[in-house]
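Here is a typical sample entry:
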Amino acid sequence: QVQLVESGGGLVQPGGSLRLSCAASGNIFSIYSMGWYRQAPGKQRELVADMNSASTNYADSVKGRFTISRDNAKNTVYLQMNSLKFEDTAVYYCNAERVVTVESIGGIYWGQGTQVTVSS
């Protein structure tokens, strides 16, 4: 059973910074892609950033402000968020795709979500 556990959300003022972390646990051999999505109230879940061995992708709205990174040895992905704006307020979800474990190949997994609130 693969679990993704997020941490690092919270309340921050506009212009501030937060760093999200997500650690995947279980009998994991490899994870092809890890990333972050977010969902604001009344809106659909959207990709924020993801990365695999070949590429890194960012939503246009966060380019230049957010940085995604991974520690493959720890099956952990991070999201450094700088210059936060009101519109960044959302629940942020960690995602892992094409996960290979003892029990399965190619699974997609989600974290439980962590709230990020940008408010003055």
